Amino acid sequence: MNATSGPSPAGALLLCRADPPAVRPSAQLLGEQLLLAPAGDVWSVIVPEGKPWLHGGEAVEQVVTGWATALAVSAATWPVVALWWDRDRAGLTLATGFRRAVGYTWLADGTPVGEDEAMRTFAARLALDPVLDVQALEPLTVPDPDADAPSRLLGVIAVLGRTGLTLPTGLHPGESPDRLRSVALAHGAEQLEPSGLRSAVRAELDVVEAGPLGPYLRGPKARVLGGAQLAAGLPLLLWGCGRRSGGWATAGALLVAHGTLGLAYDRLREA
What we know:
Elements: E1 11-16, H1 20-28, E2 34-38, E3 44-48, H2 51-54, H3 60-75, E4 80-85, E5 89-95, E6 102-107, H4 116-125, H5 132-137, H6 149-160, H7 177-186, E7 190-192, H8 197-209, H9 220-242, H10 246-263, H11 265-270
């Protein structure tokens, strides 16, 4: 694509650095119609339907930042890169655990309006190569008359390809949600239906218990983590509801749910 391309409809892709089975329980808790597909070596891609920004009046950036945060804090062990775009801008948001999300933005014509430090933080948190990968990201932060916003996101995807990310053919930034969903379904993407909170979190605990964090699900460390999730989630939930932001409200709800169920983990497993 180049700077002469037409304006892009609003859309987004959520890239999770984990296999689909690990992503599925957290994604179902978002309460949205989503598609989930493998995206290379230990990566998954979530394709949302797009209703919150198409019909709900929220900005796509705000929605997907909340979703990425919700996924990252509920998973704790893998990061989420949200790529988003609308008719005026495009950008990326990286969410990793309880850390503050970091983002970078370009105007529709590809003009960078983000801070260089944000891109360096992006590379560091994803453990990208501090020389080769950072050098590959640097051109995305300087003006280029031949690059529009979707091509900037393609540049990000190319760098993440060095970590094993491989998106299904035809799944490109800048397309409409309907087009993205059609492409994902053609590649066999799994349709995720919103799940009940209890069953989804139990499924996620099964996945985590089988991994390296399994020994930390009980005892003092688990209680400290559960208390921290509750302390962070309650104000975030109230803030999201007060601003009618579904993404941030979901992030808060997930933190509250995980904190509560984490504190009651032994009882939950016996049920």
